[in-house]
Amino acid sequence: MSEIRLRGAFDDPRSRDLRLLQEASRRGSLRLLLLSDGEIERSTGKPPKMSLAERLYYYQSLRFVERVEQRQHHTARV
Q: What is the CA radius of gyration of the chain?
C-alpha cells in the first residue's frame, strides 16, 4: 500500500475536511504535514484558530490518519 501525504494548515476542520482525509486514507497510509502557526499567519494575515499543538493532538486522534507531523522548512541555498 502506498503512502498518501497531504500538506496544509488543517485549521478549523469541518466535516467535508474529515471526509477528504477519510477518502484519502482509502488509497494508502495517510500522513499529514501541518503548517506551523507562523506559516498560517503569514499566508492568511490572521493567527490560526487552533494552535499547532491542538491540531497535532486532534488529527493524531483520528483512526484513519496514520501519521501527523509539523512540516519541515526546506530553504534553498543559492
A: 13
Q: Which residues pair with 28 in a beta bridge?
A: 2
Q: Give the separation between CA 20 and CA 40, rounded to whole angstroms.
A: 20
Neighbouring CB atoms inside 10 A of 78's CB total: 3
pLDDT in tens, 1-44: 799 999 999 999 999 999 999 999 999 999 999 999 999 999 99
52 with 70: CB under 8 angstroms? yes
Phi-psi label, residue 41: left if phi above 0, alpha if psi -120 to 50, beta otherwise: alpha
